[in-house]
Amino acid sequence: MRIDDLVALVERSTPRLGATRLVAVDGPGGAGKSTLAAQLATACGATLLHTDDFASWDNQFDWWPRLEQQVLAPIARGQAGRYQRYDWDARAWAEWHEVAPPAVLILEGVSAARAAVRDRLSLSVWVQTPPEVRLARGLHRDGVGSLPLWQRWMADEDLHFAADRTSEHADVIISGQTSYPPPQAV
Question: Would 94 disulfide with which of 13, 24, 87, 112, CB 3.0-4.6 Å?
Answer without folding.
Answer: 87
